[in-house]
Structure formats: structure tokens, C-alpha cells
């Protein structure tokens, strides 16, 4: 008897457990939008890497009484899958979301996932770098993002290695070595000769990155989003310039262990530095190499690698307040503060003229006036239209083909063939 | 028969009160229901969890694979187009070749070595058996990411240990991730290092289940250790071996972490996809590219079908050869 009752109880418990699991699936519908004009208790901000918003957010909390939660993700590679999950499930996204250039372009074809900021904020179109402002718009004209920073290029170089190889070390003289890419290659050959055959730059994909944004027209897509990777003169130019540098390259893929180890070992003497890269260079080189690096201008003037926007997901319950917060974080004063805190380069024209910004020098890089160098370089960036899958074509078609050529796995013609074929499949959307 | 209770002549004892009898029959009904259905309830938690995390994703993936699916946008039904596209997709076949290549390079030497080691550990004269058995299993306890990162460093082009050793004997440094054979070799060595001990232990357990009198009889008949191995150990090990082979097949077909970390996290697996496995290709199409999620789902189902077929072939082969 006691056995049977125990069994019955167990069965009942199991039944209860099943209904509980079934019940779980039923909840989770919280589509209750707050009444218009209601003030949110809290806004959430999602960023990756270092945006330098910690102090700014505290100030905002004080000014408005709205609590702000700052969610930071260290790596862009971890950040993107999270965003995709939020958008695919329609849940979990922050009210203000930082979008890196590649992600923004990828999300543009599905612009409905993002709130149109035009009616939510004042007209700021004249306050930012015009091309940067335009990139924040989707194909249908919807304003998705307010500009934060830009990855304006410079060249980081090792003074001690330059000196040992008989090259000038003063940053103005170094910049004068390479008014154009031909001059850069010549300097590389001279370094190779003077150093007993050592490599000059880290990789040729770094070169293609630099050349692409120097204003030779559309890259992988035309303005109607047709893939033109195989016929675009700008891409061909970047390709030819990059492949010509193979003889002075250390063939160290960016972010690989060979690459990060190379900074300490001195496997290459120069690399292309967007402003956000300075921190990475100093970290990889270590305190022992402090003062050995310096910053010169990039050949051909200008260049861009990375940069971000702030957007408001359509799923946010408080789009108006979120837009206001994004507006605050991207204004001139905030951008200068963020630059001083963590180094993202301003895109707000007023911030770029700010004394504190222009006068800034970087101690690790031999006190180079990085504010001035990058500020001047920003002005030279040419507005370039990027198609929806620009990043995928660049990372999964162009750069693998360049690496295959660089490492001798494919000759130039075959590598080009690989690139144009992959560009078509990677670029389809 | 069940009616007999009511038609039976009244017993000398006082008849049970109606209240007691109804309670008793309710108890009997519960008892019958209990016997009949509660076993299903006991196993229900497993099936519920399997349903939620195993079956549902599979069905959902199958459904996705019949669509042109954008992860964060629209989707439309396209029937079996994704599957027909697989047949003409050069990179799918490339991933298939890579997967099978790495699978062969890892599974075959690994199982042979495991068989050899298990046979050694099974010897009666061996001292410190437990120590050796523990030691041989240790690599399996190490996290796969740690294994891949350490091996990735050993196989580095500039500062790697293997290239340094090769340099000592006058061989030029090898660009391990630059060619097919070298990258396959590097990845298989990670798999082998991690899984040989595991398979050894399973085979050893199988060997110890073989009755000792068989060996004694063989010894009396004059069979040496070699002959004993071939004619007793191997045939008797057949079911264990089948199990090990099928497990290795499933693992080999789903190989993902080792090649991904070997490529520094690049989902393409080498600049010319030299070591992109099927699982990596599935990830590239289904998750990394937002707009080809449906096609990625088709790749996932293709992997599933391939595992089923390869396991079946292995099963038949092992069964036949052991006969």
C-alpha cells in the first residue's frame, strides 16, 4: 500500500513538473509599450571595445534623473552575434546600440529593425563630417545612426629600427619619405637593404585597407548596390598597390599570434594605425619599447579603418529618450571627453577644432601630437560609398586572396580570380 | 473474470461497507493507471528536454532549410532549392573533402594506436596499471580550446616549436596553416592527442570483459600472444570497436573548434579554405552570413545525413571484417 501511494505521489509530482514546464513556455509576452511621454526609469547602452562613455553617462544620469546601464563587450567578434540574436528574436537589445561600420552596412538592408532618428532628434547633418553623416543613413533614407568616431589612418613606425637601417627618424622627415605609395615602397626597400633583409610592414592587407579609402570611387558596390568588385578601378588600384608591397611584407596576418608577437620581436618596422590602434600597438609592444614608436602620416594622404555610430533598435520601448541619449553622447563636448578618456577620434566638426583635442600628445609614441596628426588625416578622408556586405567582401574575399598571393600559394592572376569569384558570393544579399 | 468479485457468494464475514468498497475500487483503478502510465512519466523529463533542445531545433532547422531565410529580415519558401544548390557548391565539396581528410588522418592512426595501447595495458605483467590508465586519459580532461591554442602556438610559423625542431635538422620552416597537408596534419594531431586515451580506455574495458579461460585454452593449445590477439581479442572486441568507431565518426564529422582556433578564429579556415570543415561551413553560411541562414540549415541537415550514412557504412564494415 505504501509503495502504491508513493508511486501515485511521484506520478502526481511528475505531472506537476510537466505542467510547470508547459507553463514556462506560455509566459514571456511583454509587448506592453509604455504610454507616450512616460519617462523611463532606465536606459541601456551597448558598446564594444572602448567608447569612453563611463563619465559621460554619470553626468547624464545627474542631469536627467534617468538611470543608464552601460553594457560593454570587449571584442567586436563577440558583440555582433549578440546583436544578431537580439534582432532575430526581437528581444534583449539595448536602447542605444553602438554599430561598427561593417555591422551597420550589413544591417542596412533590414532597416526596419532600427528606429528612424530623423523625427526624434534635431537636425545635426551640418555638424558632422558630411560623408560620415551620410553613411548613417539606410538605402531608404532612414537615419539609423548618429556618428561617434572614425578610424582615420596614420603610420606607426619604430624609430630605433629605422635608425639602424639608415632611414630618418624624425616624424616630419619620415612623412616626407612617402608622399605617395611608390615612395612608401621605396622606403621599404631601403629599410630591407639597410637591415639585412628584414620586413618593413606587417602585411599587404594592411596596405589595401589604407588605399581603398583614398577616394578613387566606389569600391565593391556601385550606388545602386550592384556588385562591381571585379571592374571597380578603386579596388584594382588597392589590389595593385597592395600586391606590389609583397616583397617588403612580414606576411603576418592582422590579429594572428605572429602579428601580435611581431611588435615585440621587431619583425616589421611600420604598420598602419587608425587612432584606436595606438592602444593595441603599445599593448603588444610592451613597456620595454616605450618611446621607440612614433607616428607619421599615411602615404597618399588620408585613409580610414573602422569607426562607429549610435543607433536605437526599433524594439526599444523608449525610442525618443534613447535618441536623446545618443544625441548627447555624440555632441562635440562628449566626443572630446571620450577621446581624452579612451582615444576614439571625433567626427563632430566642432570637436575636431577643439583645443584640447588638437593639443593632445601621446606619451608612449614619443609624445607624438596624435590629436593634430589624426585631426589632419580625418579631413583628408574621401567620402566612399559602402555597400551592404562591404565587410564580408573585404574580409572573406579580398583579404584571403591577398594573403594567398602574399604567402605564395597563388600567383597574382589566380589570386585575383579567387577574389572576384568570392566577391560575387560573399557580396550577394 | 473481473465480474467474479461481485457475483461471488457472500463471505461469512460481514460484507464491506459501500464506502470501503468504493475506496478500494478507486485505489485499484489508480493502481492500474499507475502500472500502465507512470513509467512514461518517469522517463518524461528526458524526452521533454530532448524535445525542447534536441528534436525541436532539428525540426526547426529542417523547416528553415526549405526557405530563403534572412536571420534578421524576411524569409520565403523555396522548397528544396537549398539542397540542389549544395550539389553545385564548390565550397561545400571542399569542406566535405577537408572533413573526410582530417577524419581519416585522425581516426585511423588514433584507433590503431588506441588498440595497441589497450593491449599493452591489458597485459598482466604491467606494474602501476592505475597510474598508466589515469595518465593516458589525462589529455581528454583538458579543455578543447586550451588544446587548440597550445597546439596553434606549437605550429606557429615564426616562433613555433615544431618549426624550431625542423630547423635543427636543417628543414625549412613550414607554413603550417598555408597548405592542405600541413594544416590537416596539425589539426589531426590535436584530435589524436586529445582522444587516443579515451578510446584506449573504452577498448581496454572491452578487452577485460573477454573471459580469461579463452586465453588459457589458447595457451595450452600453443598459441602465442600475436595469434591470441588476432584470434581471440579482436573478434571478441567487435561490439566495443563498433561503438568506438561510430563515436569517432560523429566527432570527426562535427569537427569545429580545433580548425577554427587553428585559423585564429577565421571561419574560412585558411586563406584558400584549406581546412574549413563542414561544421565551419555550416557556421559561415548559417550564422556568420546573416542572409543565408536557410542555406546554412540545409548544410546542417546534410551533415546529419552524412553522419548517418558514414556510421552505417562503418557499422557494416566493422561487423563484416570481424566475422
UniProtKB/TrEMBL annotation, chain A:
This protein's record includes keyword DNA damage: no
Record-linked Pfam families: SBP_bac_8 (PF13416)
Database matches in SUPFAM superfamilies: Periplasmic binding protein-like II
Family matches, as PROSITE patterns: PROKAR_LIPOPROTEIN
Originating species: Micromonospora tarensis
Stretch forming the signal peptide: 1-25
Record-linked InterPro entries: Bact_solute-bd_prot1, SBP
Identification of the protein by name: Extracellular solute-binding protein
Superkingdom to which the source organism belongs: Bacteria
Keywords recorded for this protein, A-Z: Signal
From TrEMBL, chain B:
Biased composition annotated in UniProt, kind: Pro residues: 9-18
Domain spans labelled ABC transmembrane type-1: 96-316
Residue ranges, annotated region (Disordered): 1-25
Compartments where located: Cell membrane
Keywords: Cell membrane, Membrane, Transmembrane, Transmembrane helix, Transport
Coiled coil: none
Protein topology in the membrane: Multi-pass membrane protein
Membrane spanning residue stretches: 40-59, 91-118, 130-155, 295-318
Stored PROSITE patterns: ABC_TM1 (PS50928)
Database matches in Gene3D superfamilies: MetI-like
Family stated for the protein in its record: Belongs to the binding-protein-dependent transport system permease family.
PANTHER family registered for this protein in UniProt: ABC TRANSPORTER PERMEASE PROTEIN, INNER MEMBRANE ABC TRANSPORTER PERMEASE PROTEIN YCJO
Identification of the protein by name: Sugar ABC transporter permease
Upper classification of the organism: Bacteria, Bacillati, Actinomycetota, Actinomycetes, Micromonosporales
